[in-house]
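To: structure desk
From: M.T.
Subject: fold request, one chain
Message: Could you run this one when you get a chance? Sequence is below, nothing fancy, just the single chain.
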Amino acid sequence: MRFMHDVKGENALPATVVFRLGTLGSIAADMFAAKIEAIGLKPKHAGLMTALQAGVAASQQELASKLGVAPSLVVMLADHLEGMGAVQRVRDPDDRRRQVLTLTDHGRKLLGDCAAAARELDAELTAGLTASQLGALQRSLAILAEGVGLPTG
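Reply: Done. Structure tokens follow.
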């Protein structure tokens, strides 16, 4: 994105927080995707497992609603994760039509691997920041995340 160095001024698009966060987010997401591809996962798999670990919802339909994605995507992700032994589907004893997704021990290990990869990339991405700058960035991102209803910790 070398072209951004040539666009100057406070009214320029690259000077906006939204553009910078979007561009950096895209780069970081690509780096994360490349890192976890080695263990057979994509970021959406990690997101689904994170939601299960956090207890966001248990059924595929509830997960789709909470994650704001199509139910068919949750089914596809769950199929892949189930094939890897990371999640299991269990019929709800109170409603046999409802399948409940649970994270397995192997799924928790894979999620730990994803977290380790993310921490490694965090260190890479923020290597040029001082401890004070990193702290300020983390606090600022937590405030922004909370403002849009995302988990902050």
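Reply (cont.): The chain has a mean pLDDT of 90. Let me know if you need anything else for the meeting.
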